[in-house]
Amino acid sequence: MSAAEIKEIISFVGIGLLILAIVFIQLGRNKLSGVFATIVSFLAYICLIVGALIVFYVVLSGPTQ
After folding, report:
1. Strand, helix or coil at 32?
2. C-beta neighbour count of 21 within 10 angstroms
3. pTM
4. CA-to-CA distance for 61 and 4, rounded, in angstroms?
5. What is the per-residue pLDDT across 33-65, written as a single tens digit (0 to 9) for each?
């Protein structure tokens, strides 16, 4: 695998984490209550932060050859 393909897979993981964060936030706010909502919201924000860091890394690292 080339470096560009590896960066593409890493970016897909970041995008997937961002989508997962959206689902968790909606689930925690609308469907759950109490401790479960808190746990799911915490996981959602962790996914959001990690996904954003991955996407920023891919974008700021520039093009590959």
Report:
1. coil
2. 21
3. 0.85
4. 11
5. 899 999 999 999 999 999 999 999 999 988 877
